[in-house]
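Blackboard transcription, Thursday session:
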Amino acid sequence: MDDNDRLLDLTIPQLLRWRVAQTPDKVALREKEFGIWNPYTWHDYYQKVQAVAAGLIRIGFQREMKLALIGDNIPELLFTAVGTMAAGGIGVGIYQTSLPDEMADILNGLDVSVAFCNDQEQVDKLVEVRRRIPGVFRVIYEDPRGMRSYRDDAWFMDFHRLLDLGLEALALDGGHIEASIDQGRPEDVCFLCLTSGTTGQPKGAMMCHRNYINMGVQITKVDRLADTDEYLSFLPFAWIGEQMNSFGIAMATGITVNFPESVETSMEDLKEIGPHFIFGAPRIYETIRSQIWLRIDDAYWFNRACYHYFSRVGQRAAGYRMSGRPMPWWLRFRAWIGDQLVFRPLINQIGFLRLRRAYTGGAALGPDLFTFYQTMGVNLKQIYGQTEITGIAYMHRDGDIRPDTVGKPLPGTECRISDASEILSRSPSVCKGYYKLPDKTEELLQGGWLHSGDAGFLDSDGHLVVIDRVSDVMHNRAGEMFSPMFLENKLKFSPYIKEAVVFGDQRDYVAALINIDPIIVGKWAEDRGLSFTTYMDLSLKPEVAELIRAEVAAFNRSVEKPHFRIRRFAILYKLLDMDDGELTKTGKIRRKFVREKYRLLHETLYDETVDVREVEAEFRYQDGQVTTVRTSMPFYTLAWEGGET
Amino acid sequence: MNTLTVSDVTLAFGGLNALTNVNLEIQPGLITSVIGPNGAGKTSLLNCISGFYNPTSGEIFYGEARLTRASPHQVTKRGIARAFQNLELFGGLTVLDNLMLARHRHLAYSFFHALLYWGKAARLEAENRAFVEEVIDFMELEAYRKRAVGSLSYGIQKRVEVARALTLGPQLLLLDEPMAGMNIEEKEDMVRFILDIQKEREITVALVEHDLGVVMDISDQVYVLDFGELIGAGSPQAVATNRKVIEAYIGED
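(Written on the board underneath:)
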């Protein structure tokens, strides 16, 4: 039994209090503001949490009430989240990119009483739907900028005013928050986490204290963290991926959580902090790789030659490292030279030098990306889990990294594959179900196992392999099965392809709508003296189409089964976007919606007589204005041996 | 806070009058706009106020202080700052350095202190940096702090130009076409910044602008110039219905 297991009997506020008793003066949080990193010790952290809790009680917030958190990651957001728990309430994370109507639905659906917003942008959204959310009795804002016209309205409250109220209350009765914290039990629900919802309305998963703490304790049994380690908080707080770090791992290990100056400066701040571990969706790793490639391309020939030579050496070395086999000394020596000469300086430029582990999750990542990062000495590992199991339940172990799997279960997690090949899991991190949705909860937790909805299998080494959503698996007209996500991911291994949507359910062949990568293809066009104006213009260039056609042809040659091959494709004139509802907040494709929205294109993909289709493209600006552009969009058919023309 | 009064100002270049007997008032705490077709004398008027030109005749007062013959640095000392239409920034320097440089008036330490970066030098530099950082935060320029100004997009450079003027800590800010050449979203951002400058920082704003929609939306007081003469003044509504103004813009006789 590990020392840390006793932490499982505490709630998050109790664990915070325990941290204060252990290391009151150690830095718990750090925030960059006005160009300077400002620290908060565990003691400061607890003081703020107590003040928030007392302030909330003072304005009439009661146990089990819900408080919604909307905004960029700032320490005040965390103070409010843990302060809510200390007062016996329940936090709700809402994505700051949500639209007003969406917010109103969530606030009503989850019975929220108080909302915390970081700035005017978020407050304005609530003002827009104020009449629809009668249950919300107070809106707390952190940044008073631009709030002048709301100052006399009692519906709004400055966060600093809340703290003052709390401090007053604590001065009168210092013990009532302590008592409230003592009342909490580890199995109490403390947070409602929205599930990403590739289908329909988001649901609130009921997370309890132990879910988070267990996750933090178990993952650090596999990958040790020291309390001197650093973490940069740049993922949306409403996503389980951020909560598991700032509630789970940070509390369980005592590491320092750093908050970037603004969303735009995250990558700069990453460089300054030099975190010891990082967690992110595949997109982040893809973006960083694109940037590195672009810069290498622009480097002097000598630097470029060094990079390419040592990349080849490093790739071979990475092969040994990932599988845990001993390396021949000659290769080891050359790889060491490459590290010192090329890769260590290179990863220092992105702030990865101190990084011991980088985790990727949320969607599949190409094998070449694993090799790319492992070559540079960045220990990139795949994790797998759902919101409902606190984000991580399966993970690669060091020296046992295989791009085609998601690794082995964490300690204390049991895995079973159902007869319908669905992945089932059981662990203390499994949530209590969905808020006010007993039917869905029953489905989710049938027989005491968490039903993931993903199809997969365990291989002979005990690694879990994830295929696709059970509901997303498609069959062509001949009845042959294929997974659209699997094919899309494989297509996206091409650096020129940013996003792809694969069709073919009950059809004769597989077809795809493709998004080109604006940065890489833009650079490619520039290098060839090809001029373009907008993304739309670039994506409709015949030269670009030829480039993509070659990529798709290469894809067709490499796929495992003949019926996976793509027969027809078209390049979409706009990037799929969250704001247009085409992607979920975590960047997954909302398949049904996309198929409906681009119905005409979908049909054209299966009408081989049409080469060019006139389309009306609708663009929505951030302020809601809409413009329509007419254009003609070409479709391309690929031929292959054995296929009809 | 002071009122800026322009009375009977005429500015002549040889036989050509850029401004003829212009009278106007910029009242404290408000947003006052000057509009007019190309060549109407809007920028000339700002140049007279900020001391780049001296009027041929007439007087300019800021409160009790006479600015008629003042030089630009004397005007700046009175608490009047200006953001230029054609960006007056050092393209090779970072945003931070550009803004720090704008504070040099507040850096009064000796060569000896500077050499050792000690005592007064260190203290003043830190104070000025704190001031500049506050402006960076206000104008939301954090992401560009260490980037060379020349490498930034035009819209961001415009924002840096306004930030540079704010760094002087003015009471009255003269903005010369802050929205020229911007797209819709950049314009909306700039409007929000101008309103915040007026309301949150309590700075008087004098705005020269072509975009009539913006001017009518945010101004408290509007003056209209045409061929160097004042042809209209008043609230945005009053000006919008003024016949002379409509003629000047649409070009009827």
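Lecturer's comment: The mean pLDDT of chain A is 90.
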